[in-house]
Amino acid sequence: MEHNSTIAHMIDRIVSSQLADAIAHSPAVALLGPRQVGKTTLALEIGQRYGAIYLDLESERDRAKLAQPELYLADHQDKLVIFDEVHRAPGLFPVLRGLIDQGRRTGRKSGQYLLLGSASLDLLKQSGETLAGRIAYLELSPFNVLETRSLPADDLWVRGGFPESLLASDAARSLRWRQDFIRTYLERDIPQFGPRIAAETLRRFWSMLAYHQGGLLNTAQFARNLGVDVKTAGGYLDLLVDLLLVRRLSPWHANLGKRLVKSPKVFVRDSGLVHALLNISDKETLLAHPVIGQSWECFVIENLLTCTSNKVQGYFYRTSGGAEIDLLLLWPDGSLWAIEIKRSLSPKVARGFHEACADLAPVRKFVVYPGEERYPLASDIEAISLEELAREIVRAQ
């Protein structure tokens, strides 16, 4: 465990410079991400530069310090204060608002509060009501392909990007960590955030999403399989999306005179959790499993999306006639990049991709494949590795 945490400290997080910039320019910053993703590690590293005070709100002792939050925080107006698991102290937000406004009146504008949260829902609900215009949001995802270049490429896909899973000493330990993580979420963490849901029901739903990885959302089908109504199944999905564990990828919709698919795609964001939910222990087992193609496609999509800033939006495109693009990136200037994903060392571009590109006129077209070499597949389409395209996206921002 000690060794893992040392390696985790040595891996640079892409969001690190954005976080430092946000702290320098905003009076409050929220760093959101699932549990165990490395938020505390990153916050403490940045906090060292500021001589920050760290409060873990899951600790009774630290919560006790905030029995009179105005008094405690007034004593530390000159410091960056880090609040970990901030949803544990919802009464804190109005206090922070008052202190930030007071600081503004006295000429202090930035670097006061860093809030760490394991979910968007409670944090956004609370801070959205009381800290509007005073808070910047950043999301920390599990490790991505640009952060783990020194590790075997397929380890990130098979084990996922949670530090303890990726850096475990062998495949069995990695799988056990992910299974424990899922159980802890179901039994301890989710009950803090949502209405009481039987852990077993939610586990079945989460596993269904893993089997259905990257498929179009059909809430009615999920509801039937679970024996609940559609609204309840929709609520389960909303909860897992809010906990930053599942992604809904929206379909591109524009008036093109075509019949476009309107349902979002849904997938479990971390590939390692997909494999744990399906009891896939290692690469050999994965290669023989029917989820392999969708697992790799969603792994690529999630990695590319975690490399984008919140100014770049991701979609997919599909018409009833078969035109399809796996991932569309919409840039702030309105231009589009079209990305096709093929798990083959000699990828071929399908007719549906050409048709979709004719509909949308993207400025860049790529086919991501598992090889290393970058080469033209057609005059305006490049075959490219995941890592290389991730770098290209970061450079373009």
UniProtKB/TrEMBL annotation:
SMART domains the UniProt entry points to: AAA
InterPro entries: AAA+_ATPase (IPR003593), AAA_14 (IPR041682), DUF4143 (IPR025420), P-loop_NTPase (IPR027417)
Residue ranges constituting the AAA+ ATPase domain according to the UniProt record: 25-212
Annotated Pfam families: AAA_14, DUF4143
Entries under Gene3D superfamilies matching the protein: P-loop containing nucleotide triphosphate hydrolases (3.40.50.300)
Superkingdom classification of source: Bacteria
PANTHER family to which the protein is assigned, alphabetical: CONSERVED PROTEIN, DUF4143 DOMAIN-CONTAINING PROTEIN
Protein name listed in UniProt: ATPase
Organism of derivation: Sulfurimicrobium lacus
